[in-house]
Amino acid sequence: MLSPLVMATLLLFLLGAAAGLLLQKLPALANRLNSGFALLGSLAGLVAAIQIFAQGAPVDGQLWLLGSVHLDMLAALMLLVISTVGVAVALYSFAYIREYQGKGDVAIGALMNLFLFAMVGMVLADNALGFLLCYELVTLTTYWLVKTNPEAAKQSRLYLVMNHIGMALVLVAFWLLCRESGSLEFAALREHHLAGTLASLVFLLSFCGFGLRAGFVPLHGWLPVAEPVAPSHISALMSGVMVKLGLFGILRVSIDFLGANQLWWGYVVLIFGACSAVLGVLFALAEHDLKRLLAYHTVENIGIILMGMGIGMIGIANQQPALVVLGLLGALYHLLNHAIFKSLLFMGTGSVMFRLHTRDMDKMGGLAKLMPWTALAFLIGAMAISALPPLNGFVSEWFIYQSLLSMTKLGTSVVAPLAVVMLAVTGAMAVMCFVKVYGICFCGAPRSEHASHAREVPGAMVAGTLLLAAVCLVLGLGAPWIAPHIASYGQALVSDQMNVATGATLLPLDSSQAILSPPVIAITLLGLFLIPLLVLAIFKGPKLGRRHAGTPWACGYAYEERMSLTSGGVTHTLRQLCAPLYRKQPQLDLASALHGVSASPSAAGWLLHGVVLALFILMAVGV
Fold it and tell me: For residues 332 and 247, what is the distance between their CA atoms, to the nearest angstrom?
């Protein structure tokens, strides 16, 4: 039976959206209600997701808004992702919305609730009509949220056009699925597995269609364009949560509906993921705009998640249970982790912009002293996205490394060893990028007048960022206890599709976890910090204890402004080495082909919207 908390989640989001629409003449009250309902709805969804993981069994039901509802472990994980980020974003928005006072602040709050409602509805829906309607509502609410920035008309049109192209491809894929099964219900699609050429066509249509939402290379063009111009807490929802709906769609169609029975499907997903990871971080390194840099890191991390998904699909096709569990564990754990640390980084960037009113890193500097809590939270997020132990990003990437190394033992392809190298290169460049970001933005001397007068942001914004920073620590240190719950989706696939008892898949999972113990790593790292102090205390003699007065060496601080590096200077050598690739960057981006459409009147986008609605009707009538 469906939990009342799930129904309460959707209802609270709708009430939040209604409050914004009905109380536009009372903006202060409307904003508080918008944020309050978003917070309560997210908390209800968080508790509901935890309950489902605790009981370890799917939940079915009916909702008058969506029709049939099915909450398996994959849907529960997505509900957990949406709700956790939603709690932090709602807290953050209590204060951050002041930045948009008189500039559409009430509309932003109402649309935020509608955005959350649509995302939750999509992952709950167990029929094609409810799923696709919520998917389209996600597109429209995001378009309106980006368009609240009066200078973002072109960016919002590009987003609308690209995502409606994706929606048209997804609709065709679902029409083929529903036509063959004779039903709009997902239960019928699961029972009626397609095969042969038709199955491959559906896979390719869904992979490209949902890929335009996920934003991997070369379908990423809207990400570095639309995300930076949205309000920062909405950017957190877009990058941390919304793009994952594309990955959710790929998993639903390719594994749940089609059974991932073609080996080459997994290799396609793995290769696109590896290329997206490397190119995403490489493009990020060249950026001076902090939000565009973070958007390119979304492209990178979507690629890493795709690598895990591809490995899991290869394991299903090869009948390798351990590979299925490890690959999907790494993918889903990184999906959750990326949602947390990327939302944290976007909200931290929003806090910086709240005081400095710029996204240019070369106009920041010295913020760690002036905004200490924001700097601490951002540092944790930067370490997590750089996959440094013992934080959560390290754990999920470790599982993906483990799955790739397990795949190399099959000895059937050179793709796995190359993917290991590409993932290692990606990790190294991510560390380099965030050393640059944190050093330029938070260390050294202020580089502008606004930076020199910055101060800490209001408490609600600090609470939202610190909450996500704490979750990064929990997901890292608590991995031995959290990972088995996330792995339950892969274990269910193994037991259902391979006729292998669930218990048989636990041995390889537990053995791989035994290699990795984040709490032990954390204790070891703390011990390493204490070793220099211990050595100094043992060998400290009387001469070392004497103090001599004298003029200290200034270390060049008198010339700090002239000596400090810029964001471009840090990566100058790498950009010179990779100059041919940067020149080819527009050719790797589908958005460049749509440049004329995005610059044209918005009628083009709405024409595509009409086409999508027509396909909706044809699909429903045809089935």
Answer: 10
